[in-house]
Amino acid sequence: MRTDEFDFLLPERLIAQHPPERRGASRLLHVHGIQLEDRLFADLPALVRQHDVLVFNDTRVLKARLFGAKASGGKIEVMVERVLGEHEVLAQVRASKPPKPDSQLLLADVVPVTVLGREGEFYRLRFDSGENVLALLERYGQLPLPPYITHTAGAEDEERYQTVFAQQPGAVAAPTAGLHFDEAMLATLHAQGAQLAYVTLHVGAGTFQPVRAEHVHEHVMHSERYTIPQATLDAVRAARMQGGRVIAVGTTSLRALESAVINGELRAGEGETRIFITPGYQFKVVDVLLTNFHLPKSTLLMLVSAFGGMDEMRAAYRHAVENEYRFFSYGDAMLIERKS
């Protein structure tokens, strides 16, 4: 399968640069087979059934971008990819010359850092002040907006590029399907008999990387850490027993659920996933997917094409462009019924 089969033309004006005025004010494209229905996100409760379980990703976005200098005085930019412990991280480092192992950095003029070495495309860094790295990022870091959002993160982004149910710090990108939900919507879904459950998958910067290989199978997938709580496993089992569906809120929730299937059964616990879902994949857990519109030639566009069907997704994206839906992180949503 060729990567260019997942390309499409997107007018730049359709890339949402800011969130809607309020959470939940987006549009919703309901895709069930070849049928496309233009709705509002506020209509979601009408499309969720009693006994369905909605599975959300409760990761919290770190203020992962820091600026500083090497001991030589050269300017650097650090983008934390993963927190490894109280004092160490994996990070991308942008500099005119790559920093050497055991060299010193000074971030935000006050945070001393030692370069421990290189691990693939990332650097292993140690924060030397003695304070927990999460506290340091919160105090000195900046929110890492996606590369297609052109403005610098401000107060609006610090609130709106974070879900209302974010709990577990560790992501460098938001699970964007969850951004549409406010507390009132969650309460409405619960009141009508749907279960709300949570997984954690810390989204890495690799989520924005296009597939550059000519053929899809040549792409090397990035790794992400996930956790499936026992309560979520119980909620999925209860939904199945009562005839409900599993609705993944976002591709990250879907990837966590599908990654946690061992010998045909969903298991609770923690794990590392490089799952790369492309057309032909047999889904084991998720029946319905709520997601935003994704980048051309991206692994996430391949995932939704596997879920909803290649031809169906081409038609849905063509419809979305023609009807000027808003795209990407701050954009509109799709509710996709799985192609059987």
Describe this structure in words.
With 340 residues, the protein is of the alpha+beta class. It has 2 domains: 3-61 and 156-337, 3-Layer(aba) Sandwich (QueA-like); 65-140, Beta Barrel (Thrombin, subunit H). Helix content is 21%, strand content 30%. Strands 2-1-19-18-14-3-12-13-17 form a 9-stranded mixed beta sheet. A hairpin with a 3-residue loop joins β8 and β9. α7 packs across α8. The two termini are 21 Å apart.
Derived structural class: alpha+beta
- How would a textbook summarize the main sheet? 9 strands, mixed
Mean pLDDT: 96
Named CATH topology of the largest domain:
QueA-like
Level-1 CATH class name of the largest domain: Alpha Beta
Examine the secondary-structure arrangement and name the CATH architecture of the largest domain. Answer: 3-Layer(aba) Sandwich
Helical stretch count?
Answer: 8
Output the helix-strand order: EEHEEEEEEEEHHEHEEHEHEEEEHHE
How far apart the termini lie comes to 21 Å
Question: Looking at this structure, what is the CATH superfamily of the largest domain?
Answer: QueA-like
Q: Write down the overall geometry.
A: globular
> Approximately how much beta-strand content do the residues carry?
25-35%
Give a count of the beta strands, DSSP E runs of length 2 or more. Answer: 19
Spatial extent as radius of gyration: 20 Å
Count of all domains: 2
Strand order of the largest sheet: 2-1-19-18-14-3-12-13-17
